[in-house]
Structure to design on (130 residues):
């Protein structure tokens, strides 16, 4: 069983930066493609970013492209989401999710934000004040 724990969320002013972490335990993270999702109150879950098993490729939602950067250090079983130029509309609970690369491949497909995942963390709250 893979466990995922997100951290790093907090209250930040508009224009500020945060780095979220997703730490895995129980299994090696390098067998999984990782997706970051977010969900704001009253809104549907939104895919934020996806990173391939190796970390060599990634995809982003249009709403965060150019502001967010996803990365991973498999040796530390950790995936990061660096968020810059934060806006109030980025306020949400952020979750990381893991999909086994053995099932649908080691990269993020064009359908990355709609693909099924096997494991989901408990989330970390990001609040951006205006």
């Amino acid at each position: 069983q893979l466990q995922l724990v997100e951290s790093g969320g907090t209250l930040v002013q508009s224009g500020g930066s945060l780095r979220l972490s997703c730490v895995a335990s129980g299994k090696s993270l390098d067998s999984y493609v990782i997706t970051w999702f977010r969900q704001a109150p009253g809104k549907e879950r939104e895919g934020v970013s996806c990173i391939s098993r190796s970390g060599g490729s990634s995809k982003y939602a249009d709403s965060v492209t150019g502001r967010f950067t996803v990365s991973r250090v498999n040796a530390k079983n950790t995936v990061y989401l660096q968020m810059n130029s934060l806006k109030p509309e980025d306020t949400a609970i952020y979750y990381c999710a893991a999909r086994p690369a053995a099932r649908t491949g080691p990269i993020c497909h064009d359908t990355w934000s709609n693909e099924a995942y096997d494991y989901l963390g408990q989330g970390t709250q990001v609040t951006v004040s205006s």
User: Anything to note?
Assistant: The helical segments are 101-104. Residues 25 and 51 are 18 Å apart (CA to CA). The chain has one helix and eleven strands. The radius of gyration is 14 Å.
